[in-house]
Every structure is written in structure tokens, then in C-alpha cells.
Amino acid sequence: MKRHVTMKDVAKLAGVSQPTVSNVINGTSQVTDEVFEKVQKAIRELGYVPNALAKSLKQNKTNTVGMLIPDIENGYYSEIAKEVEQTLRENGYFTFLCNTFYKPELEKLYINTLIQNNVSGIIMCYGLVDKSIFGDIANFDIPMVCIDDRTTAGKKMIPSVEINNVHGSKLAVEHLYSIGARRICFASEPLYNTALESRHEGFVLALNEYGLDSHHLIEFIEKSEYGKIDMGYNLGAKIFLNMEIDAVFASNDYLAIGIMKRLADHGVKIPDDIVIMGYDDVLVSKLVVPSLTTISQPKRLMAKRGTQKLITIMKGSEVKYMEISMEPTLIIRDSTMKKGQRPA
Amino acid sequence: MKRHVTMKDVAKLAGVSQPTVSNVINGTSQVTDEVFEKVQKAIRELGYVPNALAKSLKQNKTNTVGMLIPDIENGYYSEIAKEVEQTLRENGYFTFLCNTFYKPELEKLYINTLIQNNVSGIIMCYGLVDKSIFGDIANFDIPMVCIDDRTTAGKKMIPSVEINNVHGSKLAVEHLYSIGARRICFASEPLYNTALESRHEGFVLALNEYGLDSHHLIEFIEKSEYGKIDMGYNLGAKIFLNMEIDAVFASNDYLAIGIMKRLADHGVKIPDDIVIMGYDDVLVSKLVVPSLTTISQPKRLMAKRGTQKLITIMKGSEVKYMEISMEPTLIIRDSTMKKGQRPA
DNA sequence: CTGAAAGCGCTTACAG
DNA sequence: CTGAAAGCGCTTACAG
């Protein structure tokens, strides 16, 4: 192991004291041109690179942030992750990638590591599965923001950026109703966060609004988390067996894609036999056939706003609780467009 | 800002010295049961969390690793990133996400930051665009591994894990030839890394092997990098205008998907009018219609092997140069299966 | 088995 | 304008 070049080495070569080198590098106090030049020259000659760890230890602040995300391979989250990381970097922060797979023990492990590493802030790209973590974390009053969910840390609410998921589901039911669907099924992964709960809530409210709830609340909600396309494929079997259903509203696009696969395997024609729509408008949703009707969320904007909020808090402004809500939009594609309704 | 609880605080409460607390926590030397209990109790009462920064500074080693990746939103890379991060975590390392967008200035910025933060190692998920960085970095003799490319740092080769891309292209041409294609076009993004160069090289070699190279080396290689599906869409126009072509071999799946879109927009039937295949076997390739024939790479395995190699090096074993090569396989799907050839 | 001392590489008052 | 001194929170010999 080669020893690092330190400020001391630079100081010796430049013939000044070590604090003076620090001053030159950080511009903390005035120096004569002569000293400035000598120090810069020594830095260049030695290839000196400052030690961020030592600096952070002394200043009790770092330029690192932890990003908790359930699954970076999922297109929905990778798009958010990219925006978060980019926004942080543009503001001088660097990102620890914490891929939790929705596992409480990993959530705990990561949070613990982040605290040990003195991160300046934590951004959660989903509401954690294990809410008890927020209690543990509260003592460290570390800046936090939650994207795409809402939650509390101890007594305090955590600043959050959400999309109005209740409204999203209403848009979905409204659309399905308008094309003649009356027995709409809700298919979902477990409702382990506010976003999913709201989608469910909005669905139930909308059914009620259209008078569809009497005998017809049909829903398939999985009990545990696993690959979403596979999950959709499994849910698809239950949907296939229920002859009543004329429309499927899946709580995310990957589920919808899995369901479509299963139904297609059974010879069910989409959209003619049954219509289906998803939620999120991931990249793939326009590439599958039939292309998938879905609810689009301003994901990037949401990620950016959340990150900016975190940065504001980290820079020391008042930690006011804040909740931003953004509106989703309906994207109509082939999976809900029956032959008769399609443009020539 | 609340002051952190330190070992000193724990020591005072437990009535022992601060180094003793350190010993208890790290098991560095024997302690009496009584002392052990007192210290543990104090830790619990105060909610003490060790400061990894201070520890790292003293020990001159961290548990962090930098992961350079061009675009986390691209399914190919997000799959690799996930595997890398997971493998690192399982071995006690935490990952800095460095999304470079193939930009040399970002590559430089990230590498610099990683060095400042004393990462224990760097894993590159592609050959960097700016090769000069490897020269700069060589002085810091920091463990590095390169996945999916091959490159040198100063005089030394960097340990790497690659897939045999030359062979992949041969498999592709062999397949296209076997189904009757004779005028095969190569479509690609810029050949900015060894992987892409090898794919191109393998293509040319295979054409030669089958005697297809006389008047028929048709290739469209873009000059700059941008969204791959869009790029494919643009390349698709050139392909459409060249009536000679009867098969397209795209250097990655997203390009192929973009090309298919464009051709479909012009009313060209795939695979009946023209066959097309991609490279990488990304998730989407089986979901598009027609599903895409492609070359599959053991991406996950490649990522895991590379990460394990990095871990070995970081743990201090001999930094032997090593190059692992893995074999790709052909996945035949609908985009190259003409009607007559399809199973009933 | 336990503690006093030195030091990792920096920053930050404070003298001069 | 420059430097001596103290200290961030730890670990690591080394005494006792």
C-alpha cells in the first residue's frame, strides 16, 4: 500500500506550514501570490488529492447521500434513480446506491450503514416496508425526503413528493367505464406503501362513483413480493378463471404485461375479449403488443423536486414539513381500444 | 445540529476508558464479562453508532466502492448494476453510483471524487470513453476491475471480465445465413469500446467465412451517442432506403427495436420482408412483437465474477492480471422466423 | 485485562 | 499574511 500524499508533504515541498496549504486550497484566508504559486506547484508535482474523509470528520459533514430504492432493475425506479443521482451530483453530492428488494432487514442494514458513514441526507424512492425504522432514525435528525409515498418519522412527518394516486385510479376507472366496461378487476402486488394504497382507494371510490360497486368489487392482491411480470402471469390465471371480468386495472405496468401474456397464452384476445390497463407508463408499455393503456406519472419531475427539497434541507434551511402533490394523466393505447373504436 | 454520541460518551457512562470501548466493539482484545456488559449497556442506553469515517481515516481503508456505469436506466446496465451492488453488499462493501452518460468530463469528476473519498476499489461496467483517465489513476494503485470491456491503466492491464463478442457475432451471422439471408447489414452505435469493436470485428470475419463480403459489406454506424431506441429509429430509415438488405444485425437490442419500429411504420413486414436480430437479450426483447432474436450474454454471471475478482484484490491478494472470457448464446425468436419455418 | 499516548489528515480559531 | 495548537472520532501499539 503506497502512502497517500498529504497536505504535510505539500507543505514541506512548498516550504510553508500545513494550515497554509489548507488555506490555499480552500481559499479560507488571504495569501500572497508567491505562497499561492509555490503551493500550487507543489500540489501539481506531488499529484496531491485531498482526503475527503479527514475533511468530513473535522467538519462533521459529508458530501454523500443515501438513496434507498427497492429495485434498480425495474424501469420505473431506474428512471427515478437516474434523476435523483444526477440532481445530487449537480449539487456536489454523491450517491450511495441502496437496493433493498423490499426487504426489511436490508432496509435496516442500509440505514445503519448510511448513518455510520455520516451521509448528509437520505432519499427514499418508496415508503420503506419496515416503518419502525423511522422511529430508530429519528434520533439522528438526518435530513430525509420520501418520494412517491408519504410517511412519518417518530412524531414528525417526512417531507414527501407524491403523485395523486387516488386521482390516477379515478382516471383509469373513468376511462374503462367510458368504453363500456362494467366488471372491472383490480390486480395488484401487496399494498405495502401509500402509493399503492391510494391507487386501491381511488379504485374503490371510483367504482362507487359510477355505481359499479354493488356486487362487483373484484380484486386480486398478491400476498408477497416477487418479479412483477411473473406475478402478473400468476394473477392472469385467476383473472382467466373469472368469466365475469370485462376489464383489468393493474396497479403497475409490469403486472399488466404479465397478465396480458397469460391471457394471450390462453387465447384470450386483448382488447376485444377483455380490456386491460396498467399504471406508471414505463418505457416498455408502448413497445408491447397490444401497446398498453396506462396512467402516466411525472416521475422525473417528482424525483427532481424531491431531490431539490432534500438539498435545501441539507443546506440547512428550516426543516418545514412539506408535501408536494403532482397530477397523473391518462395515456390511451391499444390495450383498451376495441376494433370498432380504433381510428381507421 | 445535535452532537454525535461518541465512544468517549460511552466510556464515561460505562466507567471505562475509550480504547476499552473500542476493544469491546471490535473484539480486539479480551475483556472481563463485567466490563463487556457495562459497555454494551452504555451503548444501548446512548444509542451509540460508530463513526465509519473516523475508523476509515485511522485504518486507511474504507468499505466503499465506486461503480461507474454509463446509464442506469438502460436495462442492460441496470441488471449488471444490481448484481454488482448486491455482491458488494454481501461482502460488506457499499456502492457509490456513478452514472457517467458516456461523458468524459463526468468520468473524470467521478473518479476524482472516488479517490478523494478513499474508496477501496472501482468497478467499471464499461470501458471508459476517456482512456487517459487510466493513466491519471495509476499512481493511486487502487483496485480496479473492468466488466464487459478490456483496457489498460498506464502500463498495466486492468483485470477484466468479457464476453466473447467476436463469437457472438459469428453466431448471429451463422444463424442469418442459415435462414437464407445473404445481404446482411450491421447497424450500430459508435464503436466506443472493445465490446462493440469485437462485435463489429466478428461480423466482418463471419461474412468473410461465408463468402458474403465481396460486394456486400453494408454497415450503418452512428457517429454520436443518444437514446438507443431513437437511434435505431433513425438508422431504420437508412435501412429502409437500401433495397438490397435482407437481414439486419443490430449491435444491441434497443437499436433493433427502434429499427423494427421504423420499418413497421413504413409497412415493411418483419420477418417476412426482412429479418432482424439484436444483441444482449434485454428483458424487453421477448416482449416486443415480433419478439426479437438476439445474442444472450451471461450478464449477471459476468457482473458477479467481476465483482468477486475486485473483492479478492481489495482483500489484498496479489493483483494478478486476469481476463475472464465467457461465451454468448443464440436466442431465436420471431423476428427471424419466417412463416414457412414457424412451428405450426 | 485495562488505560495513557500517539496519530490518521484535515480545519479552525487564535496569536503574532 | 502565516503558523502553532487543538481537536474531529476513532485504532493501535505499548505499558502496567
**Helix-and-strand structural type of chain A:** alpha/beta
Stated plainly, the CATH topology of the largest domain in chain A is called Rossmann fold
Note the overall shape of chain A. elongated
Q: Determine the mean pLDDT of chain A.
A: 89
Low-pLDDT segments of chain A:
none
Intertermini distance of chain A: 71 Å
**Spatial ordering of strands, largest sheet of chain A:** 2-1-3-4-7-13
Order of helices and strands of chain A: HHHHEHEHEHEEEEHEHEHEHEEHEE
What does the model show?
The structure is a homodimer of 344-residue chains. Chain A has three domains: 44 residues, 434 Repressor (Amino-terminal Domain), CATH 1.10.260; 132 residues, Response regulator (Rossmann fold, 3-Layer(aba) Sandwich), CATH 3.40.50; 145 residues, Rossmann fold (3-Layer(aba) Sandwich), CATH 3.40.50. Chain A is built from twelve helices and 14 strands. By secondary structure, chain A is an alpha/beta fold. At the A-B interface, α4, α5, β2 and α6 of A face α4, α5, β2 and α6 of B. β2 of chain A pairs antiparallel with β2 of chain B. Chain A binds a DNA duplex (16 and 16 nucleotides) through α2 and α4.
